Amino acid sequence: MVKILWKGNKMRTPFVAGNWKMNKTVEEARNLVYSMSAKLREIQSVEKVLCPPFTSLLAISGLLEGTGIGLGAQNMYWEEKGAFTGEVSPAMVKELCQYAIIGHSERRAYFGETDETVNKKVKAAQTFDVTPIVCVGETLEQYESNRTSEVVARQIKFGLADVSPAFAPRIVVAYEPVWAIGTGKASSGENANGVVSKVIRPALTELFGAQTAQAIRVLYGGSVTASNASEFFGQSEIDGALVGGASLKVDEFVAITMAASKR
Fold first, then answer.
1. Which residue among 47, 106, 113, 176 is the active-site one?
2. For the residues 203-223, what does the mean pLDDT come to?
3. pTM of the entire structure?
């Protein structure tokens, strides 16, 4: 039975997703899943998701069947089909995955992702019944110039604009300060919790109303490790983590997931 968090009079299940980024061949991905799936299955109170590269989705989907561990894509396009060389449609993602990461800062920084394209992808996820993990966060320059609230609120309001209130509780938001991703310099739990409580939930409330805003899970991402996970999960408004490098290490990722189960 899945453990429930009571916050703001709404129930939110802890959520941990591993973003493998551009790592692991198909064979390596299989081996990683073999190594961690049994341990993850023992942790019943957390919603768990693995997000490998597109090349490994088919192989891993079979390995995860019946385990209770979800499968996510790291990106998807918003059109169902067409002349979009190199892209993967929501219909293709839906065949194998239940989740998709949308708007990761690396997509924004390296591949021209914008709040507008994030919004198109979220609405495509809604159409194709895929749960979006929507990433928001400020750069180091924006953080140091005290623009965190402005930037994150804008990303929420424009990225989730015109999404159905009925679908909104399915959305998972990942707050990932860009200056903390892959740098080994994580935000503090208190700072991250403040952004969620003072910026993200108010922006969600403006879009969907207070009750729905309280139902949406918000994760922290950015140099999450087994040693600092509890600091974030101990915060009142952080419901889990989007894990990068540590998700490629079996013991680290299992320990992070276990820490989430103790919320």
1. 176
2. 96
3. 0.94
